Amino acid sequence: AQSVAQPEDQVNVAEGNPLTVKCTYSVSGNPYLFWYVQYPNRGLQFLLKYITGDNLVKGSYGFEAEFNKSQTSFHLKKPSALVSDSALYFCAVRPNNAGNMLTFGGGTRLMVKP
Amino acid sequence: GAGVSQSPRYKVAKRGQDVALRCDPISGHVSLFWYQQALGQGPEFLTYFQNEAQLDKSGLPSDRFFAERPEGSVSTLKIQRTQQEDSAVYLCASSPDRALGAFFGQGTRLTVV
Question: Nearest CA of chain B to the CA of A95: how many Å?
Fold first, then answer.
């Protein structure tokens, strides 16, 4: 069975600084990897995905993530954080060869301070 | 509408009451998913439909949970004899392709008292 770990419950960063939200996964076969963001009282919004190809994936709102197969990681990054980036971020995985559902991590709350 | 729509947004049920949660997916989306998100946790998979066929219901926590999508569009998640542990946000998602990520609705927050 697949699993996702987001080791940080909360990440604090100052506006304008780079941010990283960590994600590691465990899955049999090659993974499809996703990042979603959740704002208060709103549904999950898709940020980006890795299916195949270039390990560096660029997504919405200036976010990017790097797939590292040897470390089984898919960390979310942004070069310069905005206060409006403050939200709950979820990493998710799905094996490419079986199943249809996404397995989510527990989430990381990002706090960007002015 | 442009996105996945869920209703009601909030539901308070007395323990033992039956509830029905509705999901209107994005028009034309073949795949539909239900997830349960407990407070402070990530969403957990409940069930998956491809058109009207329920292909995976491995995540349903008990036989009190039942989902249907009779015409391959709108879906209903029904919970019978609700218990306090059923309190959560129930998220619906749809996708045009089962291999890709999904678009989520705002969810229904169920509180069982």
Answer: 10
